Amino acid sequence: MKSTFRVGLCPCASYEEQSVENAVRTALDRSGGGPGIRGEVLLKANLLAPVRPDRSVTTHPTVLSAVVSWVRGNNPGGGISVSDSPGYLFSGQWPLFVENCGLSELTQKWNLEIRPLNDEGFLEIDSTATVALGKFGIPVKAAKAGTLINVAKCKTHVETEMTGCLKNTFGYLDTATRQRAHRSGSLRRLCDTILDAHLARKPDWNILDAVVGMEGYGPSHGNPRKMGWIIASENALAADVVAASMMGYRNPYSIPLLSAAAHRGMGPSDRNEIDLAGATWEELAVPGFRKSPSALRRLVPTPLRGLAHSLVRLSPFWNTGSCTFCGVCARVCPAEAIRTDTDRIEIDHHRCVRCLCCHEMCPTGAMKVQPNLIARLLLK
Ligand code: SF4
Ligand code: SF4
Q: For position 282, what pLDDT does the model report?
């Protein structure tokens, strides 16, 4: 008999505090009760950039607060922290993160510290279970947490199509390892690296903030989109399959990251293996949800699929208007393809591997994505 993976859902119309708290509790109950609490609890949030919660780039503070409340209710007096390794370029700006992401209130309300995930250093992992990585490090904080709860944000992603529970733990990795994964220019290798990281410290439970997600050019510059759900599951892949269904994917396994995870036996390999509690599949799809433009590669005829990345090209494009010449794009580029000057930015398109990290991390949105002719035709 095939195993089943339970996913608990609860509708949640807004980030009003009490509604979110009820929804998180209900989704956890429906998903099987949530994790048994052991030792120090770490909430791994998505704090990609120091931006306001209404931009939908980061896990909303009311969702984090509701999870803290649930943990405190189950383990009064136990240690708990909220953490992430934000986009590497911002690593020296931690107080700005706490302030801009709306987390100051959280620290006061629950008397807890919010610190960077990597501030205690890295613990070397040498696992035979890895596919893309050999020896690599994950943050000591994550490795030693008694209970790790993954509190992710539901968004599109210009490279991996979506980011949810599986992708959120890519944040375990140090800058150099992340850059190596992007520099390869291989989506398969990037997916395997993301999954290696996830397996190095598998979260004990996963909660996905899909109250307001992001559509289009995520994970940083898409549009906030009301989705209306809190999703919870012990299994990250199962939760992501449900989130992809909300994004309008009739076959969530057409997303390379999800199919690679299923291939590695990390969860359900079919929607029928998911036991959905609190919703039906039919009611999940958000009408007119704008998927990531990278989903266009799916429209390439099957015999040419191997060439899809070359045929449907999404390239970085510098738009001078809102550029502040901060130099972030050049710092994050894994191919060293960007040269910054005082009044212009140059992209060497021969070196560029089209990872779109520069677009993802540009704080002002000046680094755009330009679809080539085929992509533009498919977009019509
Ligand atoms: S394009 Fe964006 S990241 Fe690059 S220098 Fe301009 S504002 Fe900074
Ligand atoms: S220029 Fe941008 S898209 Fe190209 S390799 Fe550098 S970061 Fe990636």
A: 96
Query: Residue 277 and residue 229: Cα distance in Å, rounded?
Result: 12
For 271-303, letters b (16+ CB in 10 Å) and e give bebbbbbbbeeeebebeebbbbbbbbbbebeee
Mean pLDDT in residue range 6-31: 98
Tell me the ligand closest to 179's alpha carbon: 2
Q: Which of 356, 360, 362, 369 to mutate to test the pocket of ligand 2 (most atoms within 8 A of CB)?
A: 356
Residue 210 · residue 7 · CB < 8 Å:
no
331 Cα: distance to centroid of ligand 2 (angstroms) = 10
Closest ligand 1 atom, CA of 327?
5
Structure token digits, residue 263: 């291939």
Please indicate whether residue 45, judged by its CB atom, sits closer than 6 Å to ligand 2: no
How far is the centre of ligand 1, averaged over its atoms, from the C-alpha of 213 (Å)?
25
Q: Which residue blocks in the chain are alpha helix, DSSP H? A: 17-30, 61-74, 94-100, 104-110, 140-144, 165-168, 175-183, 187-200, 236-246, 256-263, 308-311, 328-332, 357-361, 373-379
Residue 379 is predicted with a pLDDT of 65
| Domains of the chain, CATH where assigned | 5-283 (3.40.50.11440), 295-379 (3.30.70.20)
